Amino acid sequence: MPPPAVSLPEPAALATPIISAGSPAVARRCPGLTPARGWFLFAIGSLVLAGLLSLMLVVGRLPFLAWLFTDPLFFKRALVVHVDLAIVVWFQAGTLAFLGLALGPRLPRGVTAAAFTLAGAGVAGLLVGALMPGALPVLSNYVPVIDHPVFFGGLVCWFAGAGLFFACALVTTARTDAKALTPAVVVALRAAAAANVLAILTFLGAWRTTPDAVPAAYYELLFWGGGHVLQAGNVATMIALWLHLLHRWTGRAVLAPAVVTALMAALVVPQIVMPLLAFEGTTGTIYFSMATHLMRWTLFPVVLVVLGAAVAHVGRSPARPDWRDFRFAGLAGSAALTLLGFILGAMIRGSSTLVPGHYHCAIGAVTIALMTAAYDFCTAVAPADSVPVPPRRARLQLLLFGGGQAVFGLGFALAGAYGLGRKQYGAEQHVRTLGEYLGLSVMGLGGLVAVAGGIFFLAVMLRHLAAWRHRAAPAPLSTP
Question: Taking Cα atoms as reference points, which of 404, 413, 410 lies closest to residue 367?
Fold first, then answer.
C-alpha cells in the first residue's frame, strides 16, 4: 500500500480531550497555524469560485453551442473574475499558506490581522465590482480587470494585504520546530515572496507613470511588467513545492540550501529591474521588451536545472520510491505540464489560441503542484484524529486534473495552429476550418475533465476544512 499523506506520531498527547480547533487552547498549543490556515482558506475559497466560472467559460468556447450565447461581454466578465481568482488569489494565497506554516509563530499578530482584513476586503471588492451596472471588462494580460472603482479597489486591497504578509515574511526568521518544510524549501518560498513584492512595486510604479488612455491600453501598460514578475514568483513557488514533495516522497532532501539560494537568485534578482523601469515610464519600448526577455531567459534555465536534479535524485535514491504515491503523480504532472508549456510557448508567432494553450499549461503546472502539496498541508494543520486523504483518491484526482489540463492546452494549441484568434467567445468566434473545430472540441473535452478533477479536489479539501472546527488539536508533522 502507498504511504499515507503524512506520517503522524502516536504520542500520549493524542489522548487529550477533543476541543474546538478554533479555540484559544489550540492556538496556544499550535502557534502559527492561524496564518497558514487563514491563507489556505483564501486559496480554497478562490478556487471554488474560479472553478464554477471555468465550466461556464469552457461551454462558451464550444462551437456548436456558440449560438446560445450572443453577449460576449457576459463571458468576458466571467473570464476576468475567473482569471483573477484562479491566477492571482489562488497562487498568492497558496504561497502565503506555506509561508505561514514555515514562519507562523514568529509573525506579528497585528500584521497578520491587517493582512487578512485587507485581503478579505479585496476578494469582496472583486466580486461586488463585477456586478456593478455598466462595468466594462478589460482583458489585459496577466491581471484582467473590470473598469469600475469598486472592482479596482478590491484589487488594490488584495495586493496590499498579500504584499504586507510577503514583505513581513522576508524579514521574519523561520520557525525552528517545523519539520514539514526543509531549509531549502523555505529559501524558495522566500524567493517567491521577494518576487511578489517586486511585482507589486512594479504595479505601483506603472500606476504612477502610465498616462491616461482608453481602458484597454491603460490596463495593458499597468499590468504588463508586474504580471511578468508575478510569473517568476509562481515558478519559485512551484520549485519550492517540488522540493518539498520530493523530500516527502523519497525521504531525502534534493538540493542543499546554498544551491537553492543560488538558483533562486538567478531567477529573482534580475526582476529588480522591472520596478525601476516602471517608475521611469511604461510607454518606452524597453519596458515591454525587458519584461519579455526576463521571462524568456530566467525561468526555463532554473526550472530545467531543478528538474535535472530531481531526476538524478530519484535515480540515486537508495530505497526504491513508491511509484504509486500520489506525490509522484503530482510531481510528474506538474513537470510534464511545465515542459509542454515551454514547447507551446516557443511555437507562438502571433495572437492566436496558442497563447492561452501555452499559459494554461504553465499555470496548470503550478496549480497541480499546489494541489499535491495541499494534501500534505491539510494533514499538517488538521486535528490529530482526522482521517488523511486516501492516497489512491488523491492520485486519481491529480491524474484527472493534470491529464485534462494537458488536453485542454493542446486543444487550444491545435486551434491556434490554424489561426483561431484568442479572447473570443460565443457568437464572437469565427470558426472556419476543420482544424479549428477539432482543436476547440479537444479543448472542450480536456477542459471538462480538468474541471471534474478540480471539483474532485475541492470536495476533498472542503471536507477537511469542515473537520478543523469539530475535532481535536493538530499533531506536529513528522518527517517521512
Answer: 404
- Using DSSP bridges, classify how beta strands 136-138 and 145-147 pair: parallel, antiparallel or unpaired: antiparallel
First-to-last CA distance in the chain?
15
pTM for the model stands at 0.86
Are the C-beta atoms of residues 437 and 431 closer than 8 Å to each other? yes
| C-alpha closest to that of 54 among 462, 453, 447, 457 | 447
Concatenated DSSP letters for 36-72?
Answer: HHHHHHHHHHHHHHHHHHHHHHHHHH-GGGGGG---H
**DSSP label at 9?**
P
* Burial of 182 (C-beta count, 10 Å sphere; 0-12/13-18/19+): buried
The answer to whether residues 44 and 89 touch, using CB atoms and an 8 Å cutoff, is no
DSSP secondary-structure letter at 472?
A: -
DSSP secondary-structure letter at 131? T
Ranges of each domain in the chain: 322-480
Task: Note whether 179 and 217 are within 8 A (CB).
Answer: no
Classify 322-480 by CATH class.
mainly alpha
pLDDT in tens, 186-234: 999 999 999 999 999 999 999 999 998 888 899 999 999 999 999 999 9
